[in-house]
Write a structure and sequence with these properties.
Blueprint: H1 2-9, E1 15-17, E2 30-31, H2 36-41, H3 45-50, E3 52-55, E4 57-61, E5 68-71, E6 80-83, H4 85-99, E7 102-104, E8 108-114, E9 120-126, E10 129-135, E11 138-140, H5 147-151, E12 156-158, E13 162-170, H6 186-190, E14 195-201, E15 204-210, E16 215-223, H7 246-255, E17 265-268, E18 272-274, E19 278-279, E20 282-284, E21 290-291, H8 299-318, H9 324-348, H10 357-362
Parallel strand pairs: 1-7, 4-14, 11-20
Antiparallel strand pairs: 2-6, 3-6, 4-5, 8-9, 9-10, 12-18, 13-16, 13-17, 14-15, 15-16, 18-21, 19-20
Helix pairs in contact: 1-4, 1-8, 8-9
Protein name: Oxidoreductase
Family: Belongs to the flavin-dependent halogenase family. Bacterial tryptophan halogenase subfamily.
């Protein structure tokens, strides 16, 4: 969506083929303050506010049992955001269509083949049957599946086995304060779910956040081969690994939700990338290009930023600059390499469980790609 919005703004006719019949739920509801400049650049400030509530900070137990709080309220980037992801997807789709993107729901690409020396033919299944489109440049924005890039021969690399077991529970109501007493510092107390909570435990780490939908999202992140059966089936409080996560434990107790809780959603969360994120007249954006560990809360921000730069690169290539797409690829490669170092450094600070398989793996994260 970011790529399409950018391209239309640069005067390039853009068609977006979306396999789903409409906006759909995706995990990822926390946006850091650093996302605000790209939201402004893409003209999405109002759209995000309609789908979000402020996030005032991050509380973490990481590297020690002490709770560390990082306050967004007085930072230079402003507040972060906790989004209703389905509403967020809808708002961005509406924004893209309003800018002039030609949008097609329920359109699943079946193949992508070269037409002449510059250009592509795409065949896609629709409710009305098979349709054909032609394009000078193709953008793969199909998420971790990297559907088009893999059709073109690109290889997917994975750096770990991380996945998340996510549960969405009713959250307790926010405290109502008299209007005359509300201040910047009283807001987090009035809405205790407004901060992201991250807590490391021997076999992984917990994440939780209160959402605009009056739900509490709670996720346990670990490797696929380490996820206990108790976290794959409907959760029961007494069976969860919460001994080192008192804040997450308190949040779960406060929901008052009858047990067992609804069956969790199991979703991939591994770090990965395409071997090549661009080629002759094509490129990949978002998680089709690179995937980030959710610890960074960087996925949506990176996708929007990459989308903007991808749109600019495509416009430059169409304007006669032949190395524009390779320049985009170099930018993504450099950004991802820096991210791997930062991610390793973040995990390296947690040394309380040296015999844990999960943490031993994290301490060598980025050393090699998995098959």
């Amino acid at each position: 969506m970011a790529t399409a919005i950018t391209l239309v703004g640069l005067g390039v006719r853009t068609v977006l083929l979306e396999a789903a019949p409409g906006p759909r739920w995706k995990p990822g509801e926390s946006l850091p303050p650093s996302i605000n400049p790209i939201l402004t650049r893409l003209g999405l400030n109002a759209a995000v506010r309609r789908a979000a509530l402020p996030s005032y900070g991050v509380s973490s137990r990481w590297g020690s049992p002490e709770l560390i709080e990082r306050d967004f309220l007085f930072g230079v980037g402003g507040v972060g955001w906790r989004i209703d992801r389905l509403a967020f997807e809808s708002e961005l789709a509406n924004a893209a269509r309003q800018t002039g993107v030609e949008w097609h729901w329920g359109t699943r690409v079946a193949d992508c083949v070269r037409v002449g020396s510059h250009g592509w033919a795409l065949h896609a299944s629709t409710a009305g049957g098979l349709r054909r489109w032609t394009a000078r440049v193709v953008v793969d924005a199909s998420g971790r599946a990297a559907r088009v890039a893999r059709l073109l021969g690109a290889r997917r690399l994975r750096y770990d086995r991380l996945l998340g077991s996510l549960s969405y529970l009713p959250s307790p109501p926010a405290q109502t304060l008299p209007a005359q007493t509300v201040s910047a510092r009283s807001l987090p107390a009035a809405d205790p779910g407004s901060a992201t909570v991250v807590e490391a435990v021997p076999g992984g780490w917990w994440y939780s956040l209160g959402l605009p939908s009056r739900q509490l999202v709670v996720a346990f992140l670990t490797d696929a081969d380490l996820l206990a059966e108790t976290l794959r089936r409907p959760w029961r409080f007494a069976e969860l690994p919460l001994a080192y996560a008192p804040t997450t434990s308190e949040r779960l107790r406060a929901t008052g939700c009858p047990q067992p809780w609804p069956a969790p959603r199991i979703r991939p969360a591994y770090v990965g990338r395409l071997g090549s994120v661009a080629g002759p007249d094509w490129l990949a954006v978002g998680e089709a290009a690179v995937c980030f560990d959710p610890l960074s809360s960087y996925g949506v921000e990176a996708a929007l930023g990459a989308g903007f730069y991808a749109g600019a690169a495509i416009s430059e290539q169409l304007g006669g600059r032949p190395d524009a797409l390779s320049g985009y690829a170099e930018l993504i490669d450099h950004t991802f390499a820096q991210y791997l170092i930062a991610c390793h450094d973040r995990y390296a600070t947690e040394r309380r469980w040296p015999d844990s398989t999960f943490w031993r793996r994290r301490h060598r994260l980025g050393a090699m790609a998995l098959p």
